[in-house]
Amino acid sequence: MRNHFISALVVLLMTIFLRITPIEFALLAISILFVLFAELINTAVEAVVDLVSPGYHPLAKVAKDTAAGAVLMAAIGAAIMGYLILAKYVLPLYGKVLAMFGTPSDLGTVVSILIVIIAVIIIKSLTGKGTPLHGGVPSGHAAVAFSIATAVSLNTHDPLISALSIALAVMVSHSRLLMRIHTMREVVLGSFVGSGITILVLTAFKSF
User: Fold this and answer.
1) pLDDT tens-digit map of 129-140
2) E strand or H helix at 42, and its extent?
3) Which of 30, 28, 35 is nearest to 82 (CA)?
4) Could you point out which of 10, 127, 137, 196 has its C-alpha 20 to 30 Å from the C-alpha of 190?
5) Domain count, the chain
6) Of 111, 99, 115, 96, nearest to 155 (Cα)?
7) E-strand stretches of the chain
8) Contact status, residue 148 vs residue 165, Cβ threshold 8 Å
9) Which domain CATH number covers 36?
């Protein structure tokens, strides 16, 4: 519920700056309220199931999974609605930001990814935690994933492709958390290392 409220707050703040139409705002508000409604129903179902069946029962699992699935469906619907409404406002602005960096060279992209890998190995050796390919500070998978996503964004200048690349990098990073290989701090640090080094290297190559 906390995550839903934070997401709703971000979306509503965006609507203020983007100056969307009243109808578009109403559709977004309905989508947000529907997700919150589904989450409340999910919580109620879980509470009732725990009350009726304190121990494990296959039907209790089905009830909880189905209620959680309803929240997921509501969230997907809200995401689709948000994209259809906000894309025409956000994507052009994002495209202008990407265009400010110019078009990097192919060599710069390869060099930036290699430097990210080397930097991750050096940092891990200095901290003495993990191995080059497993664990430690920072997350190498997050660093490389965000390095590639940043390179794709700056090379294509396509807002949609950039957003999808970043989403894929987030999924790769999230998998490291789910597998309990890295902490949130290590993943976030890796993402900043990957993106930061890639931007610096590609900007340097563009000036040549």
Assistant:
1) 766 667 777 888
2) helix 22-52
3) 28
4) 10
5) 2
6) 99
7) none
8) yes
9) 1.10.287.3610
**Could you tell me the end-to-end alpha-carbon distance of the chain, in angstroms, rounded to an integer?**
50
**Among candidate residues 40, 38, 42, 18, the one with its CA nearest the CA of residue 30:** 38
Tell me the C-alpha distance between 88 and 86, whole Å: 6
What phi and psi values does residue 47 have, to the nearest 5 degrees? -65, -45
Strand, coil or helix: 134: strand
pLDDT-based confidence at residue 181 (cuts at 50, 70, 90): confident
Q: Which residues of 86-109 are buried (b: 16+ CB within 10 A; e: fewer)?
A: beebbbeebeeebeebeebeeebb
Query: Of how many residues is the chain composed?
Result: 208
Task: Answer whether the bond into residue 138 is a cis peptide, omega within 30°.
Answer: yes
Domain that holds residue 111: 106-206
Residue 164 and residue 119 in contact, taking contact as beta carbons nearer than 8 Å: no
Kindly report, residue by residue over 20-66, the tens digit of the pLDDT: 888 988 998 899 999 999 999 999 999 999 888 888 888 888 888 89
Q: Annotated catalytic sites, by residue?
A: 39
- DSSP 8-state assignment for residue 131: B
The type of residue at 182 is H
Tokens of 12: 């509503």
Within this chain, do residues 129 and 69 fall inside the same structural domain, yes or no? Answer: no
